[in-house]
Hints:
23% of the residues lie in helices and 42% in strands. It is of the alpha+beta class. The chain has two domains: 3-38, no CATH class; 42-198, Nucleoside Triphosphate Pyrophosphohydrolase. Strand 5 (53-61) and strand 6 (66-70) form a beta hairpin. It starts with a strand and ends with a helix.
Amino acid sequence: MTAEVISQREIWNGGFLSVSDDTFELDSGSKVSRLVVHHPGAVVVVPVTSEGLVVAIRQFRAAAQGELVELCAGKRDILGELPIETARRELKEELGLEAEEFVELAGFMNSPGFCDEFTHLFMARELSHVGRVPQSVEEAESKVVVLRLEMLASYLADGTVKDAKTIIGLFQARDFIASEPTPSDYLHDQQDLIERICSD
């Protein structure tokens, strides 16, 4: 089925988010109107150490009314910035990390029933700690946590991880690493990386 946009009328603008009332004509000739939330898109980064540990963040989320364990992520709200550059920027801001290798694992729509947000998912490896540069109160008060890919099923079962983008990212990274033809012993992180991260 295809749909042609007949009209699009913005009814609210809140900065990086806006809402429009869109009318479409379907193949059958039927017309439907829907409210659509417009979002600039986002990136998610799975930083994986050479020992298979994932560096993540625990932070307060207003919509969840509590803290969530999440992968590093951020909006693509800088005009002209490529997804890979957004990934580098967010990795440094939230986790204080830089990476020598980025692998784009997948792309997905977060909530296509009402929102056009598209997320680029990257894995980052060969990590070094450079110090965090938090950009919000939530980031400044957040805590860095370390996850183990082999514990993913347990994290889902006990509620440690509830965030959808984080679940997708951990599964994709785990499967990518498992599919590599040769062991990743060529990957080298900064010496004492985890100790540096946890003392930040």
